[in-house]
């Protein structure tokens, strides 16, 4: 039986490994279990696809039990714990996702069904929420660097280019109405560069295109982490990079910009803490209003240096390039991305910066990183 094919509302679904499924179906109590418990078959033994769980939620399950007859691998369990906390963060109570190991157990399965029933429906409406963004700290995506930092960058870039030490300096510039990465190749062009702010594109993703040149690049903690990750994966980057640090560790950089202020990659947790202080119903209202804005343009995925992990928006969870997905379906798609990216995401906030609807995706990624660090 599949959760996706049923039209009747159900309060609990069990997403299980193959071995658990056959053990459940042959158990003496299988025939007497509440009708609202549906089994969703997995495709691989011993592994539960995160998408299976989220698809069950997106299609109306009010609770999901993930079960193995054996033991889950530590890595797999960590990812499930990340998902459970992300669900709670967006207003879907963590008790709606049970993670269990061992043979089917009638009392446990019934207790879970009752627990979910007691929680009631996971309400994720699309009602507008006024004033909640004001409750967040003022420094959101789009906060810009100080003028002093940009001036220092322009002077340094001009000197580097005049001396011939580098063939180009990669930072940011204004293109039409948007802030885009920009390579200055002359001292005159260097005067148009500016230092990075929150949500500005991650510069590291462009280094592959100038891999055979001597380059200087502005690195925030996020760019630095991304350069390390790309090198580890064997991606061809410029051999000699002159690193201009913006809030990055002094020992890793060839020069530092002054007065950098708040830069991405330095997670404060302040905004997460502010949201977590809201009652769960308010978090659900806040996030449903955010996800209702999503137009499934894929801009966030395209902006991510680790986009190979984020192909969740194109699959069965939500229609691509359409407006017909519910806020709950959209939330599930973005939670799938955030769960998969946990451990890879470098907190550059490029995804949020690229979003035409200003969906604060960076908060999901911060939360996923925070949870993974606590369970690893
Ligand atoms: S998911 Fe993480 S690494 Fe990817 S763009 Fe967003 S913040 Fe950057
Ligand atoms: S960039 Fe924004 S609108 Fe586009 S898919 Fe991502 S969250 Fe949705």
Ligands bound to this protein structure: iron/sulfur cluster
Supply the number of helical segments.
13
Taking pLDDT < 50 over at least 5 consecutive residues as the criterion, the unreliable ranges are 1-9
Strand content: 5-15%
Compute the gyration radius: what is it? 24 Å
Q: How many separate domains?
A: 3
Helix-strand topology string: EHEHEHEHHEEHEHEEHHHHHH
Major sheet: order of its strands?
6-5-7-8-9
Number of strands: 9
Class computed from helices, strands and strand pairing: alpha/beta
What's the assembly state of these chains?
A: single chain
Share in helix: 25-40%
**How many angstroms does the end-to-end distance come to?**
34 Å
Characterize the overall form. elongated
- Specify the biggest β-sheet: 5 strands, mixed
Round the mean pLDDT to the nearest integer and report it: 82
Summarize the structure in short:
The protein is α/β, with parallel strands linked by helices and 376 residues long.
Write the layout of secondary structure elements.
Layout: E1 12-16, H1 18-25, E2 37-41, H2 50-58, E3 64-68, H3 74-89, E4 97-101, H4 106-119, H5 147-163, E5 168-175, E6 178-184, H6 187-190, E7 215-219, H7 221-232, E8 241-245, E9 255-256, H8 270-276, H9 280-292, H10 299-303, H11 327-341, H12 350-354, H13 361-375
Parallel strand pairs: 1-2, 1-3, 3-4, 5-7, 7-8, 8-9
Antiparallel strand pairs: 5-6
The structure holds iron/sulfur cluster (SF4) (2 copies).
